[in-house]
Amino acid sequence: MNVLELLGVSKVYGQGPAEVHALWGVSLTVGEGELVAVMGPSGSGKSTLLTIAGTLEEPTSGEVLVGGTSVGGMSRNDRARLRRRSVGYVFQDFNLLAGLTAAENVSLPLELDGVAAKSARELGLRALDELGLRERAGSFPDDLSGGERQRVAIARAVVGDRRLLLADEPSGALDSANGETVMRLIRAACQRGVAGMVVTHDAQLASWADRVVFLRDGRVVDQTSPAAGPESLLAPNP
Ligand code: ADP
């Protein structure tokens, strides 16, 4: 099933002489369990694509569907709810709140969504556990290593039953070994059924994805094909 579908999405910022076409008719799908990397030079529209996919911004034309539902037809409230419940973000600098423990950071999105504190905490601990961080649940971000902070950020992005994980240069501030770790963790989240879309400028990291989409001047200029599944071995020879 497609968790994210972008159909002919265009985005224009500004008007008249100041008009900028950030995206031109971009179509792209990300299925359950799939990890897609988005690459392209600076200014090619990668961040715009990610914010539109995360329903933080509306396209000028085209359609965005999350979990099969068209976002364009939703009320602002419904869209906010969808964002809170289904979409997780990993930011470049992780954006953990220094005054909250790891567990509190991870369960915060659930509490903001009205989940009772006890259930939110349990779900938060489960997400930390999946990332091997349960014993650090009571630590504050300043007492965690850089690698542990990344993992808390990823736990926060997948807590509850978030189905879409969006990451903008999640390894931007990290050395290459840590960048690989982040991608491996995102990959593992996808293996548990999450659909992932990651912007990166690093081809080595993009190679962790099932598919790489290349943007240039707001257009998809190339796309690697999805890896052939095991069933391809069973296909009869032509
Ligand atoms: P990338 O992430 O690949 O660097 P962006 O999506 O940030 O590219 O930007 C694509 C184009 O849209 C750029 O020309 C940028 O200047 C423009 N742009 C992005 N956001 C805005 C905005 N809020 N207002 C005006 N122009 C914008």
Structure, explained:
It is a single chain. The chain has helices spanning 46-53, 76-86, 102-112, 117-130, 146-158, 176-191, 203-206; strands spanning 2-13, 20-31, 35-39, 61-66, 69-70, 87-90, 164-168, 195-199, 211-216, 219-223. The longest helix has 16 residues, at 176-191. Helices cover 32% and strands 26% of the residues. The chain has seven helices and ten strands. A six-stranded mixed sheet has the order 6-7-8-3-9-10, with helices on both faces. The protein starts with a strand and ends in a 15-residue tail after the last strand. With 238 residues, the chain is of the alpha/beta class. Residues 13-14, 20, 22, 40, 42-48 line the site of adenosine-5'-diphosphate.
Give the SSE layout.
Blueprint: E1 2-13, E2 20-31, E3 35-39, H1 46-53, E4 61-66, E5 69-70, H2 76-86, E6 87-90, H3 102-112, H4 117-130, H5 146-158, E7 164-168, H6 176-191, E8 195-199, H7 203-206, E9 211-216, E10 219-223
Parallel strand pairs: 3-8, 3-9, 6-7, 7-8
Antiparallel strand pairs: 1-2, 1-4, 4-5, 9-10
Helix pairs in contact: 3-4, 3-5, 4-5, 5-6
Adenosine-5'-diphosphate binds next to strand 2 and helix 1.
- Under CATH, the topology of the domain at 32-48 and 75-212 and 219-226 can be stated as Rossmann fold
List all distinct small molecules, including ions and cofactors, that are bound in this structure.
adenosine-5'-diphosphate
Calculate Rg over CA atoms.
Answer: 18 Å
State the fourth-level CATH superfamily of the domain at 32-48 and 75-212 and 219-226. P-loop containing nucleotide triphosphate hydrolases
